Amino acid sequence: MIRGSRVKMHLSLTLTDGTEALSTFAQEPESFVVGDGSFTPGLEETFLGRRQGDSGELLLAPEQAFGARMEENLHQLPHADFSPELTLESGVVMMFETPTGEQVPGTIVAYDDDRVSVDFNHPLAGRELTLRFEILAVEPPAAE
After folding, report:
1. pLDDT for 6
2. Helix-then-strand count for the chain, H and E
C-alpha cells in the first residue's frame, strides 16, 4: 500500500478501557484512497507498506491517531450567541461555523448564564487507541 492506493478494509478503534469508538467489522468495509484525507496522517502512516490480506492489532499513541489535546482548542463563547430555544448540556457535540464558513464539531464542556465552554479538539485527541485492521483489497494508484 502506497499513497494513491485504493483500499478496502475493516478496522476498529478501541479505547484503553475497552470501549469501542469505531468499528466497520459488522458492516460494510471502509473504502478510501491513501492520502485522500479520510484518516489522519499518523493513522495513514501505519497502513503504508501493508498488503491485501494483512491483518493485525496495533497500540497507537495519540500522535499516531488524533493528536494531542490542545488547550488552544478550548474556547469560551458568550451564552448570548446561542439560541434561547437551545437546551445546553455538557458532553453534547454541536456543529459550529468558523469565520471562513467551515462547519466544525465542538463539545459543550460547561456553561453558565454568561459563558459556554466549547472543546474543539477531536473527541479522541490525547487518547491511546488500539487499532485492529483487516485489509481486504489494495489497488495500485491510478495512472495519470
Report:
1. 96
2. 1, 9
